[in-house]
Amino acid sequence: MGHEKATPDSAHYRCVGVGVGPANLSLASLLHSRPEVRNLFIDRKESFGWHDSQQIPGTTLQVSMFKDLVSLSDPKSPFSFLAYLHDQGRVYHFLNAQFDDVPRLEFRNYLAWASRRNENIVFGEVVEEVGFDGVFTVRTDRRTVTADNIVVGVGNQPWVPVQGRRHLGATQFHVNDFMTSARNLGGKRVVVVGGGQSGAEAFSDLISRSGAELPRRVSWISRRRNYFPIDDSPFTNDYFMPDHSDYFYSLGAEARAAFNAQHILTSDGISESTLRDVYQRIYVHRFVEGNPDLVGLHPNREVVGVEAGAAGDWGITVRHNDKPDALEHFEADVVVWATGFRPAAMDFLAPIAHRLERHGDELRIDEDYAVCWDGPADRSIFVQNAARGQRGLADPNLSLNAWRSQRIADRLCGVRSDEQLASFIEWSTKTGTNVPWGA
Ligand SMILES: Cc1cc2nc3c(=O)[nH]c(=O)nc-3n(C[C@H](O)[C@H](O)[C@H](O)COP(=O)(O)OP(=O)(O)OC[C@H]3O[C@@H](n4cnc5c(N)ncnc54)[C@H](O)[C@@H]3O)c2cc1C
């Protein structure tokens, strides 16, 4: 019983963070220079990790390196990516390497470095229950502490559709387990399901293997009509600015939902460099190395059934979106589900869950990411990366990490930092003002 293990700890904090991924690590980094805001951040992992079992070799960050833990809010912070490079003595080497994008593993190493330099962060401890009795009581598997405020940053969990969920195991797995599970696939038939960045990276890795490690066939199924790129162009990137996040927050539920559906590729599309790699690999296999049967590309289709075959393989039934009556069948030895992530459960909030307002399947937040609830106004539960429906597609992304953390830090400190200049674009209607035509 967790209750018996927990020992009382007289420690009281201004802020306790649950989870230490990039979101709460950003806040912990910003608060590090504010000793008056006594804080503790707790993560259940034994040590820092960032999607470690999905660190596919050669993958890169999908955002600018300035979108690190702190720079966009506090460029003088000792927790920036540049500070990391400098601390490691490799700042010139990094420049001279002329990376088009930061290697994802290097960014992960930076995050781990930032977590090690912060004595307010602990690993290997699970938050099991958060209650409230004038202050928050945070019970972990080791102790109980109290806090004026809680910041939940538990991220997302791998998600597999029901067709695959019941078969998960050694030969059907989520792409999140790719580095540990996608081994010894030489000569096998592999199906990758999912047409986003993770699916593309898995597919690219599989068809890039050499010699005896190369699968016999790799098929790539996607619900989208084609393998679409992420839109990384200038005006689109203005969606990932603070003032657009605030504009989005001001919209009605219907407009928000329509926006997220319509502009999904601004966050969930595939990097052009990955698409180019995949296309070039296919060209070489087919026309240069004479291996025309390696690759199967099947977009615009949905997996509707998965059955175990007699020989320990899998039979996959797929429906074409334009011809729903014509079902197709694939045989596979291994299925990789690159079907995305969903917000992680927050079961530890159960003791106070009835006091928290909801907005669809999210907790309703105010403009500072504090959950609306019936408790005192000076006691808050903030949520990071759990409000895509209210804050838009930027919420799970690294782009606004530092800014969102600054908003929360400001609220904890009772101040409001200056914002950067607004977008060139007027997102909102200025009711009652004349827009000068031709001015
Ligand atoms: C492979 C991959 C690559 C990505 N690359 C990019 C990119 O290039 N650019 C970009 O903008 N976005 C990227 N993202 C999206 C996003 O940046 C990441 O998902 C990011 O990790 C989200 O950070 P987070 O802190 O919200 O959650 P997470 O990183 O998931 O961290 C949550 C933490 O909470 C801990 N936790 C959960 N429950 C408890 C509990 N009860 N007690 C204690 N600890 C708990 C977990 O152990 C975990 O460490 C990527 C996502 C993936 C999957």
UniProtKB/TrEMBL annotation:
Keywords: FAD, Flavoprotein, Monooxygenase, NADP, Oxidoreductase
Single GO MF annotation: monooxygenase activity
Broadest EC class assigned to this enzyme: oxidoreductase
Superkingdom: Bacteria
UniProt cofactor(s): FAD
Pathway(s): Siderophore biosynthesis
EC number of the protein: 1.14.13.59
Alphabetical list of InterPro entries matching this protein: FAD/NAD-bd_sf, Lys/Orn_oxygenase
Entry annotated with the keyword S-adenosyl-L-methionine: no
Protein name, as recorded: L-lysine N6-monooxygenase MbtG
Family from the record: Belongs to the lysine N(6)-hydroxylase/L-ornithine N(5)-oxygenase family.
Reaction catalysed by this enzyme: L-lysine + NADPH + O2 = N(6)-hydroxy-L-lysine + NADP(+) + H2O
